[in-house]
Amino acid sequence: GQNIDQPTEMTATEGAIVQINCTYQTSGFNGLFWYQQHAGEAPTFLSYNVLDGLEEKGRFSSFLSRSKGYSYLLLKELQMKDSASYLCAVTDSNYQLIWGAGTKLIIKP
Amino acid sequence: DAMVIQNPRYQVTQFGKPVTLSCSQTLNHNVMYWYQQKSSQAPKLLFHYYDKDFNNEADTPDNFQSRRPNTSFCFLDIRSPGLGDAAMYLCATSRDRQGGTDTQYFGPGTRLTVL
What are the backbone angles phi and psi of residue A81, rounded to the nearest 5°? Predict the structure, then answer.
């Protein structure tokens, strides 16, 4: 079966750095997405990785290792507004998007 | 601004009473999706349209139907809502390919309550 694993919940302090991990087992791989979802709202696109390595976009960076079936989302200089769920999603060989359940990130002052 | 719009944002219906949720997009994207998302769970794809081509997920109940009368609009019909159908319903679009390498853009969602 296809599976995306993320921690259910993480807590971090305002101004700090946090890394949210995602591991996947899918039938093939055509890219990995990270989405941010605030409570009661729709997911919004953060990043897309298809090649190994680190993609940096402002305070957010996303890393991919295809050989390890692993990605992480790195958030720097955390702000209270970063409190949200972060969903990892992988496109498989049939171009189906497989979603993780998300990691709820709680930021404390 | 190009966007995905869902109406209504909150919908209350009674057990067994049909309900229709609507989605429109100004992005001119080929693909439109309907997802069901329950609290703290991953979005679950119900079906999607690639242009006029309808694709139903194997485990989507028959109680859920969809219509896409034109490129801009897509509707989700729940014929006989049960208590288990209470959820957030998300509409999304992508330029091409089902999920593929194209980013999906989501509407704000409709939160459905079944009494």
Answer: -70, -10
Tell which of B27, B101, B112 to mutate to test the A interface (max A CBs under 10 Å). B101
Q: Which residues of chain A have pLDDT under 50?
A: none
Mean pLDDT of B102-113: 91
Q: In B1-115, which ranges are E strands?
A: 4-7, 10-13, 19-25, 31-37, 44-50, 53-56, 64-67, 73-78, 87-94, 105-106, 110-114
More confident residue, B39 or A60: A60
- How many C-beta atoms surround the C-beta of residue A81 within 10 A? 8
CA distance B103 to chain A (A): 7
Subunit contact A97:B106, Cβ cutoff 8 A: no
Residue B83 main-chain phi, psi, to 5 deg: -60, -30
Phi-psi region of B74 (alpha: psi -120 to 50; beta: other; left: phi over 0): beta
- Short-list A96, A101, A100, CA closest to B47: A96
B4 to chain A: nearest residue by CA?
Answer: A42
